[in-house]
């Protein structure tokens, strides 16, 4: 590349964001054009600056990273997205890739790995953490074997059993040590896979398919 890759970084944790910014500024082939502290600001700055690559935290106030990605795709913005996340849940990673993310790395990744991923994405490649790659391969294999919708993940099975027991999303979150938002994300995915729109229908469909004892 003859020109530096333009990059925007969005993360609501200032210390972590500053570390990524310093790493980008140390690379001659990268050019930081903006920062954001939440999803709403990230979306506004991406629309304004149109960076080649946006490095987004998956969990942010106002809008989460996936919502930002969906919005810029709907708006026809060409910015590619690299997610950095402390949450390496396979289903969440799969959703971001399906939504168009070109990269998904753990926040435990080194600064060099993050910068190398930015360069790769700007060159048309992808940059997924090994565990994300492994999950994508499993999902593809499951699709080919089933010839239909994705199978339920272990976590989705667990959530289905708990809603069958009458637990609410906050109660499920406390039981399995997840945020209510994450539980609701699992519920939404569960509803989509079962072709239903509410808890009662999910339980009934789960029983019909033999997913509940």
Question: What order do the helices and strands come in, and which of them pair?
Answer:
Elements: E1 5-10, H1 14-25, E2 30-36, H2 39-49, E3 53-57, H3 65-74, E4 80-85, H4 90-98, E5 103-106, H5 111-122, E6 127-128, H6 130-146, H7 154-164, H8 169-176, H9 180-194, H10 199-208
Parallel strand pairs: 1-2, 1-3, 3-4, 4-5, 5-6
Task: Write a compact overview of the structure shown.
With about 210 residues, the chain is an alpha/beta fold. It is about 55% helix and about 15% strand. α4 packs across α6 (about 130-145) and α8 packs across α9 (about 180-195).
Explain what you see.
With 213 residues, the chain is α/β, with parallel strands linked by helices. It folds into 2 domains: 5-135, Rossmann fold, CATH 3.40.50.2300; 154-208, Winged helix-like DNA-binding domain superfamily/Winged helix DNA-binding domain (Arc Repressor Mutant, subunit A), CATH 1.10.10. The protein has helices spanning 14-25, 39-49, 65-74, 90-98, 111-122, 130-146, 154-164, 169-176, 180-194, 199-208, and strands spanning 5-10, 30-36, 53-57, 80-85, 103-106, 127-128. α4 crosses α6, α8 crosses α9 and α9 packs across α10 (199-208). It is elongated and about 60 Å long. The mean pLDDT is 86.
């Amino acid at each position: 590349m003859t020109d530096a890759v333009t990059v925007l970084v969005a993360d609501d944790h200032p210390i972590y964001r500053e570390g990524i910014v310093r790493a980008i500024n140390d690379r001659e082939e990268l050019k930081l054009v903006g920062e954001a502290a939440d999803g709403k600001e990230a979306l506004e700055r991406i629309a304004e600056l149109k960076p080649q690559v946006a490095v987004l935290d998956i969990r942010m106030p106002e809008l989460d990273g996936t919502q930002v990605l969906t919005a810029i795709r709907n708006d026809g913005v060409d910015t590619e997205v690299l997610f950095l996340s402390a949450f390496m849940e396979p289903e969440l990673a799969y959703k971001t890739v399906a939504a168009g993310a070109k990269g998904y790395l753990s926040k435990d990744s080194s600064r060099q790995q993050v910068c190398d991923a930015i360069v790769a994405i700007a060159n048309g490649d992808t940059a997924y953490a090994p565990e994300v790659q492994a999950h994508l391969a499993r999902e593809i294999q499951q699709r080919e074997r089933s010839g239909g919708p994705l199978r339920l993940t272990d976590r989705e099975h667990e959530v289905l059993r708990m809603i069958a027991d009458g637990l609410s999303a906050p109660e499920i979150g406390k039981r399995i040590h997840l945020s209510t938002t994450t539980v609701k994300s699992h519920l939404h995915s569960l509803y989509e896979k079962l072709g239903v729109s509410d808890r009662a229908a999910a339980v009934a469909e789960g029983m019909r398919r033999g997913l509940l004892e």
